[in-house]
Design goal:
Layout lengths: L4 E5 L16 H12 L1 H4 L3 E5 L6 H7 L8 E3 L9 E3 L2 E4 L2 H12 L6
Parallel strand pairs: 1-2
Antiparallel strand pairs: 1-3, 3-5, 4-5
Amino acid sequence: MAKDKLFLIKPGFTNPNRPGGVFVCPACNQVEGLLAASPELAANIDVERVAFPRPRPDVVALLGEDNQSLPALIFADNPPADAREHNGVRFISDTTRILALLAERHGFPQLH
C-alpha cells in the first residue's frame, strides 16, 4: 500500500532576500516538531524535504506550479472532503489541518 506523502522545506536554509541569516519555515517547523516527537509514527509517512528556492521541481511535478507552498500532505488514498486536487492528486497545504490529519490518519498526538 502506498503511503501518504509529506513535503517540507529543509530547515537551515539561507534566503537571498534576507542575507546573513539561516532560517526555518515556521509552518514546516511545526510539522517537524510533531514528526520528531513520534519517530515511530513518522516512519509510516513518506517525508520529503526540499530546498527553499522556487521552483520546487518535486512539488511542481505532483501539485503544479501554483501549489508550491509548503508544508503539503498528499494522500495515498481516502482523502478528506476538504482536500484540494491537481491532476488527480489530492492534498492539503494548511498547516493546522495537516497536523490534525496526521493525528487522525496516523495516530500522532493531537495539538491541544
